[in-house]
Amino acid sequence: MLLVLCVDLDDDLGRKTGISTPVIGREAVQEAAVALATADPEDSDVNVIFQGLHVHDDLAARDESVEVAVVTGLEGKDVTANRKVGEEVDTVLASLSTGEDVTALVITDGAQDESVVPIIRSRVPIDGVRRVVVRQAQNLESMYYTIKQVLDDPETRGTILIPIGIVLLVYPLALLGSLFNLPGLVLGVTSALLGFYLISRGLGLGEYLDASVERLRHSLYAGRMTLITYVVAAALFVLGGVSGMNTVESHQAAIEGDLGAPLLVAAFVHGAIQWFAAAGVTTSLGQITDEYTAGRLEWRYLNAPFYVIAMAVVLYAVSAFFLDLVGIGYLAAALTVGTLLGIVSTLTFAVAESRLSEGGRQAESV
Predict the structure, then answer these.
(1) Residues 314, 319, 320, CA angle at the centre, nearest 5°?
(2) N or C terminus: which one in the chain shows less Cβ crowding within 10 Å?
């Protein structure tokens, strides 16, 4: 037996006529088609049901075993609609009182309804799928469904619509630029925006930015100290850069000439290193605080601020020596102090961690 199965995925038949589904049998299907055509003559599912009747009558005239039925889904719910179609197909198959093998001919009105074909195939073999649309608009509904799917996908929507929107802004922005005698600037900014967007999409910067925003939001609501310390460290870095440039300018004014690359670097480091060290100590203390509150703190983490101070002492002394502000003795003492500070902090926290670990193991053995 061939089952002519008319599919109405968004349940126009049930919503507009109140007829319960599935509808099984030629007379019942004809009544449903007339009722839907009366309620909404422009509904494409009317064509689907009448096409199903036409195929049924054509096959019946050839004395073939055939039945026609209408199954529906739900409006605006893809997964639930597919499941409902599957349940109604099961109901139709259970109602067929025949000992013959049943195959199906699926009739739809476009690509959207054809998404249920795998659901139907899992229940009954399919001999074919026939799409019924108005002759004057063969691909209209399929094109509409494709565009709708594209616009519903945030990833695809952003990839396609944003560049198009930027391009469409070129002309009005050019007119605005001409009004203020700045056409080149406006076109340059628009081109830069488009180029930046395409580069960011190509390099995946959007995903990185989204992840960064999510981490920031999590840090804000989780009460993480690093969120504050990073802001403070950024301000200290800016102050350090300004201080370093001021030091470079003062040394250039003192010698009334070019310092040369090594002395420029030394002057910048000499003026900025204190601020950079303060930023490093701030961020390390914030990280240590978060590790402690999360219960993940290890003794060796406490080395970070001491390492930062040790490196700052060494760089400050070296830069001062290059600028002839200190002698060789001061440099040697600073190098010794920086090295000893790193060694002492490392040994101290390593011994403390080892002693605490041994104490914990002994307590567990007792």
Answers:
(1) 100
(2) C
- For the four alpha carbons of 92, 98, 101 and 105, in that order, the dihedral sign comes to negative
Q: What confidence tens digit (pLDDT) does each residue in 339-353 have?
A: 999 899 889 888 887
* pLDDT, average across residues 92-119: 83
Provide the pLDDT for residue 142: 62
Which residue, among 150, 102, 97, 142, has the nearest Cα to 126 in the 3D structure?
A: 102
Q: Assess if residue 237 is contained within a domain.
A: yes
Residue 231 lies in a domain: yes
Mean model confidence pLDDT for the chain: 82
pTM recorded for the entire structure:
0.45
* 192 and 130 fall within a common domain: no
According to DSSP, the β-strands at 66-72 and 103-108 are unpaired
Q: What secondary structure letter does DSSP report for 188? A: H
Could you tell me if 8 and 71 are in contact, meaning their C-beta atoms sit under 8 angstroms apart?
A: yes
Q: Which of residues 261 and 18 earns the better pLDDT score? A: 18
Q: What is the DSSP string of 70-136?
A: EEE--TT-HHHHHHHHHHHHHHHHHH---SSPPEEEEEESSTTGGGGHHHHHTTS-EEEEEE---GG
Residue pLDDT, tens place only, 134-170: 655 555 556 666 666 666 666 566 667 667 776 777 7
Q: On the CB side of 202, how many CA atoms lie within 13 Å of its CA? A: 6
Question: Cα angle vertex 107, ends 134, 49, to 5°?
Answer: 70
Rounded Cα distance between 119 and 116, Å, is: 5
Split into its structural domains, the chain has a count of: 3
- Give the percent of the chain with pLDDT over 70: 78
Domain that holds residue 164: 154-203
- Region 262-285: what's the mean pLDDT? 91
Residue type for position 267: A
Q: Going by C-beta distance under 8 Å and a sequence separation of 6 or more, which residues neighbour residue 133? A: 44, 47, 109, 110, 139, 140, 141, 142
Whether a cis peptide bond, with omega within 30° of 0, leads into 118 is: no
- SS3 string, 241-300, reads HHHHHHHHHHHHHHHCCCCCHHHHHHHHHHHHHHHHHHHHHHHHHHHHHHHHHCCCCCHH
